[in-house]
Predict the structure.
Amino acid sequence: MTLGSHLTPLARSHIEQADVVFAGLSDGVVELWLHRMHPDVRSLQPYYGEGKSRVQTYREWVALMMTEVRAGKRVCGVFYGHPGIFAWSPHKVIETARAEGFDAHMEPGISAEDCLYADLGIDPGSVGCLHFEASQFLYYERRVDPSAYVVLWQVGMIGNRSVGHMENAAGYRQVLVDLLAADYPLDHEIILYRAATLPIQKPRIRRIALGDLPQASLPPEETVVLPPARSLRLNPATRDRLKALDTAAATA
């Protein structure tokens, strides 16, 4: 996620031993750094385009990597953060390669979620933590627990999942706020978060009221975190059942 410091020794070895390296990275500086590790690094960024479907771009990525795999080359795809989180192409290219009889695997990496826990001081085990992709959260019936942390990913692109627009109208986010208002007051403090991608950077952390989200400046890479709005509530029925089991075990 952060240049250099989050790269595992095993991942570095795969990069150095590859015949060709494809790169989907967060910053041009990171790409230049990768060029110092391997002489044949091919950027995937030019395949994005204004108004172009991101699905089309991702399919092109898979085709590019598979062309080299089929040519008998040892191919390494390098993606910032965890390569399997919010990343369709790495999963698809591995699936395709395996279906054609090639060896393929994914190395785990540090994700924006990992950085979020560290930078915001959140322990997901304390009260629980739910994660949703923002557009999916709108399109489908999902259950929110306001006593847990709720993390919404890609709110900056909500409603525009298939087309390459990187900004989104406030109206889409207003629909999100209206939906969340059933469980949260509009003055509930939420967090806008972005992990650092360069060692010289600090994470970007902003706190605003939920009701102000539609008009907030929200780049696509920022994540929205809703802290708990109420305390955990006891479940008397379950507690009684557990107590009965304890009693039965003690008298057996």
In short: The mean pLDDT is 93.
